Amino acid sequence: xxxxxxxxxxxxxxxxxxxxxxxxxxxxxxxxxxxxxxxxxxxxxxxxxxxxxxxxxxxxxxxxxxxxxxxxxxxxxxxxxxxxxxxxxxxxxxxxxxxxxxxxxxxxxxxxxxxxxxxxxxxxx
Length: 125
Known about the structure:
By secondary structure, the protein is of the alpha+beta class. The protein has 7 helices and 5 strands; from the N terminus they run βαααβααββαβα. Helix 3 (about 35-45) crosses helix 5. Mean pLDDT is about 85; it is low at about 1-5 and about 120-125.
């Protein structure tokens, strides 16, 4: 018989968040809750070389440069991206620890199921 695994206990369900952790995570979640900011974060994170010039981001959106700058500022303020001005352009990169913290919040843990149990995901499928 093969072992069946169940998905259990995402970090948010293991223990209550502290007030400061909840405030920090809420700011990050609020920042990525906007489709433009989520796309920007994805574009920055997936760009070759790990960083991208703002000049390479603006063409992908039907938005003004100040609007894109506002969205990037929200992501930067939430601690999800870093930036550096180089001449007339600003370059952006992902802050891995912050993005990983968001991902880990909902990432389930896998543990062996007790003998005779059924995979919860299979029952609900």
